[in-house]
Amino acid sequence: MVGGHRAPADADRRMQELHELHGPALHRFLLRWTMGDRQVAEDLLQETFLRAWKNLAQLNADLTTIRPWLFTVARRIAIDASRAKQARVAEIGVGDMSDRTTGVDEIDRMLDGHTVRAALATLSVDHRQVLLEIYYRGRSVAEAARILGVPEGTVKSRTYHALRALRSAVGSGQPQD
Hints:
It is built from 7 helices and no strands. By secondary structure, it is mainly α.
């Protein structure tokens, strides 16, 4: 001991031993408290060990005997966290309000339909057919392949290239920098 305090290396060793002896059991205990939420349980475990570290000088030299104290600290931290969460007003993400409308805008829907139809007209017949089968009629790749008389791989390839061409014709809808 130096000036009534344990040396830092001794504290590190004791904390390592404390974690090895009690960490797994405390983690299981906190998982039950958090109903299986691993992230919250790990945060609570970290807070428990932080409190142990702050009180390390006052703890019994025999670390095997302080498990009840650790469980009490962990339980209190879990209760406090639960109460704090209940006391907070639920946060609702506002997000980007520019893409939200107040109702169905028939003009926008008509313009979108016109834009898509014009873009579809620029595609090859093969690309239009595959998009029609997959997206408009809701068919699987296997069903579309059978109807179009082509292999499934061809349907996948045509769908990929048709969507790229369609996206290019319509525009990505993302603002350009």
